[in-house]
Amino acid sequence: MLAVKRQATLSSASRIHQALRPGLLSRLSFAAATRAYHSKLYGSADEAIEGIKTGSKLLIGGFGLCGIPENLLKAIARRKDIEQVTAVSNNAGTSDYGLGTLLQSRQIKRMVSSYVGENKEFARQYLGGELEVELIPQGTLAERVRCGGAGIPAFYTLTGVGTQVETGGIPIKYSTDGQK
Protein backbone atom coordinates (compact mmCIF):
# COMPACT_ATOMS: atom_id res chain seq x y z
CA MET A 1 0.00 0.00 0.00
CA LEU A 2 2.81 2.41 0.95
CA ALA A 3 4.64 1.67 -2.30
CA VAL A 4 1.50 2.48 -4.31
CA LYS A 5 1.02 5.84 -2.51
CA ARG A 6 4.71 6.66 -2.93
CA GLN A 7 4.57 5.83 -6.65
CA ALA A 8 1.48 8.02 -7.09
CA THR A 9 3.23 10.90 -5.32
CA LEU A 10 6.35 10.49 -7.44
CA SER A 11 4.39 10.42 -10.68
CA SER A 12 2.43 13.54 -9.63
CA ALA A 13 5.66 15.35 -8.87
CA SER A 14 7.08 14.19 -12.18
CA ARG A 15 4.05 15.57 -14.09
CA ILE A 16 4.33 18.91 -12.28
CA HIS A 17 8.05 19.10 -13.01
CA GLN A 18 7.48 18.30 -16.70
CA ALA A 19 4.73 20.95 -16.93
CA LEU A 20 7.13 23.62 -15.77
CA ARG A 21 9.85 24.94 -18.00
CA PRO A 22 12.97 22.79 -17.71
CA GLY A 23 15.26 24.01 -14.95
CA LEU A 24 12.71 26.39 -13.40
CA LEU A 25 12.00 24.14 -10.43
CA SER A 26 15.68 23.66 -9.70
CA ARG A 27 16.29 27.44 -9.96
CA LEU A 28 13.38 28.10 -7.58
CA SER A 29 14.66 25.49 -5.14
CA PHE A 30 18.16 26.98 -5.25
CA ALA A 31 16.80 30.51 -4.70
CA ALA A 32 14.72 29.36 -1.71
CA ALA A 33 17.66 27.48 -0.24
CA THR A 34 19.93 30.49 -0.71
CA ARG A 35 17.47 32.79 1.07
CA ALA A 36 16.94 30.33 3.94
CA TYR A 37 20.64 29.63 4.54
CA HIS A 38 23.01 32.24 5.89
CA SER A 39 26.33 30.96 7.18
CA LYS A 40 26.99 31.67 10.83
CA LEU A 41 30.64 30.68 10.59
CA TYR A 42 33.21 33.46 10.86
CA GLY A 43 36.97 33.49 10.65
CA SER A 44 37.39 35.22 14.02
CA ALA A 45 35.44 36.58 16.97
CA ASP A 46 36.22 40.13 15.79
CA GLU A 47 34.62 39.36 12.42
CA ALA A 48 31.56 37.84 14.11
CA ILE A 49 30.82 41.00 16.14
CA GLU A 50 31.18 43.49 13.28
CA GLY A 51 27.42 44.20 13.23
CA ILE A 52 27.21 45.06 16.94
CA LYS A 53 26.99 48.79 17.60
CA THR A 54 26.34 51.20 20.46
CA GLY A 55 22.94 50.64 22.04
CA SER A 56 22.62 47.02 20.91
CA LYS A 57 20.68 44.48 22.96
CA LEU A 58 22.66 41.27 23.36
CA LEU A 59 21.22 37.93 24.43
CA ILE A 60 24.08 36.08 26.10
CA GLY A 61 23.76 32.29 26.34
CA GLY A 62 25.19 29.94 28.90
CA PHE A 63 24.34 29.04 32.47
CA GLY A 64 26.53 30.52 35.14
CA LEU A 65 29.97 30.61 33.57
CA CYS A 66 29.41 27.42 31.56
CA GLY A 67 28.68 27.71 27.86
CA ILE A 68 29.12 31.48 27.65
CA PRO A 69 30.48 33.01 24.41
CA GLU A 70 33.76 33.94 26.13
CA ASN A 71 35.72 34.85 22.99
CA LEU A 72 32.87 37.01 21.65
CA LEU A 73 32.61 38.85 24.99
CA LYS A 74 36.37 39.50 24.97
CA ALA A 75 36.13 40.78 21.38
CA ILE A 76 33.33 43.18 22.39
CA ALA A 77 35.40 44.36 25.38
CA ARG A 78 38.26 45.21 22.99
CA ARG A 79 35.92 47.38 20.89
CA LYS A 80 35.65 50.60 22.89
CA ASP A 81 33.24 52.04 20.30
CA ILE A 82 30.51 49.61 21.49
CA GLU A 83 28.79 51.27 24.47
CA GLN A 84 25.37 51.53 26.14
CA VAL A 85 24.72 47.79 25.65
CA THR A 86 21.70 46.07 27.16
CA ALA A 87 22.79 42.57 28.19
CA VAL A 88 20.14 39.87 28.65
CA SER A 89 21.58 36.87 30.47
CA ASN A 90 20.73 34.61 33.36
CA ASN A 91 23.73 36.02 35.28
CA ALA A 92 26.28 38.82 35.30
CA GLY A 93 29.41 36.70 35.35
CA THR A 94 32.16 37.42 37.88
CA SER A 95 34.13 40.61 38.27
CA ASP A 96 36.69 39.61 35.64
CA TYR A 97 35.05 36.84 33.60
CA GLY A 98 32.01 36.55 31.35
CA LEU A 99 29.89 39.70 31.34
CA GLY A 100 32.18 41.03 34.06
CA THR A 101 34.66 42.01 31.34
CA LEU A 102 32.04 44.28 29.76
CA LEU A 103 31.06 45.67 33.16
CA GLN A 104 34.73 46.44 33.92
CA SER A 105 35.02 48.39 30.67
CA ARG A 106 31.69 50.19 31.38
CA GLN A 107 30.11 49.01 28.11
CA ILE A 108 26.89 47.70 29.69
CA LYS A 109 24.17 50.24 30.41
CA ARG A 110 21.41 47.81 31.44
CA MET A 111 21.36 44.22 32.70
CA VAL A 112 18.28 42.02 32.36
CA SER A 113 19.08 39.00 34.49
CA SER A 114 17.83 36.42 36.95
CA TYR A 115 20.97 36.08 39.11
CA VAL A 116 23.74 38.58 39.81
CA GLY A 117 25.24 37.42 43.10
CA GLU A 118 28.90 36.73 42.24
CA ASN A 119 29.94 40.00 40.64
CA LYS A 120 31.21 42.73 42.98
CA GLU A 121 31.69 45.20 40.12
CA PHE A 122 28.06 44.68 39.13
CA ALA A 123 26.90 45.44 42.69
CA ARG A 124 29.12 48.51 42.90
CA GLN A 125 27.83 49.95 39.60
CA TYR A 126 24.19 49.19 40.43
CA LEU A 127 24.26 50.64 43.94
CA GLY A 128 26.24 53.64 42.65
CA GLY A 129 23.60 54.49 40.04
CA GLU A 130 25.82 53.63 37.07
CA LEU A 131 23.92 50.54 35.92
CA GLU A 132 20.24 49.82 35.24
CA VAL A 133 19.11 46.39 36.42
CA GLU A 134 15.96 44.40 35.75
CA LEU A 135 15.85 41.28 37.91
CA ILE A 136 13.56 38.59 36.52
CA PRO A 137 12.80 35.08 37.79
CA GLN A 138 14.67 32.47 35.72
CA GLY A 139 11.52 30.88 34.24
CA THR A 140 10.08 34.26 33.31
CA LEU A 141 13.34 35.25 31.64
CA ALA A 142 13.34 32.02 29.63
CA GLU A 143 9.71 32.60 28.60
CA ARG A 144 10.45 36.20 27.56
CA VAL A 145 13.25 34.97 25.33
CA ARG A 146 11.06 32.20 23.86
CA CYS A 147 8.16 34.57 23.20
CA GLY A 148 10.44 37.20 21.69
CA GLY A 149 11.89 34.63 19.31
CA ALA A 150 8.42 33.42 18.34
CA GLY A 151 7.09 36.96 17.78
CA ILE A 152 4.70 36.84 20.74
CA PRO A 153 4.53 40.41 22.11
CA ALA A 154 3.31 39.62 25.66
CA PHE A 155 2.46 36.81 28.05
CA TYR A 156 1.05 36.48 31.56
CA THR A 157 2.70 34.69 34.47
CA LEU A 158 1.64 34.40 38.09
CA THR A 159 5.25 34.48 39.30
CA GLY A 160 5.37 38.18 40.17
CA VAL A 161 1.74 38.71 41.21
CA GLY A 162 1.51 40.30 44.65
CA THR A 163 5.24 41.06 44.80
CA GLN A 164 7.41 44.10 44.17
CA VAL A 165 7.82 42.91 40.59
CA GLU A 166 4.11 43.63 39.99
CA THR A 167 4.11 47.04 41.66
CA GLY A 168 7.45 48.24 40.33
CA GLY A 169 8.93 48.35 43.83
CA ILE A 170 12.34 47.06 42.82
CA PRO A 171 14.39 50.00 41.56
CA ILE A 172 15.85 49.56 38.09
CA LYS A 173 18.43 52.25 38.75
CA TYR A 174 19.61 53.93 41.94
CA SER A 175 20.71 57.55 42.04
CA THR A 176 24.43 58.21 42.47
CA ASP A 177 23.94 58.71 46.24
CA GLY A 178 22.50 55.19 46.56
CA GLN A 179 18.86 56.28 46.91
CA LYS A 180 15.91 54.91 44.92
Description:
The structure is a single chain. With 180 residues, the protein is of the alpha/beta class. The chain is 41% helix and 9% strand. The protein has 8 helices and 4 strands; from the N terminus they run H-H-H-E-H-E-H-E-H-E-H-H. The protein has helices at residues 2-19, 24-36, 45-48, 70-78, 100-104, 120-127, 138-150, 164-167, and strands at residues 57-59, 85-88, 108-113, 132-135. A 4-stranded parallel β-sheet has the order 1-2-3-4, with no helix packed on it. Strand 1 (57-59), helix 4 and strand 2 form a beta-alpha-beta unit. The longest helix has 18 residues, at 2-19.
Shape: globular
Strand order of the largest sheet: 1-2-3-4
Which structural class best describes the helix and strand composition? Answer: alpha/beta
Instruction: Outline the biggest β-sheet.
Output: 4 strands, parallel
How much is the radius of gyration in Å?
24 Å
Uncertain runs: 1-13
Number of strands: 4
Instruction: List the total number of helices.
Output: 8
The helix fraction, in percent, is 40-55%
Measure the end-to-end span: 73 Å
Give the averaged pLDDT, no decimals: 81
What is the helix/strand order?
Answer: HHHEHEHEHEHH
Strand content: 5-15%
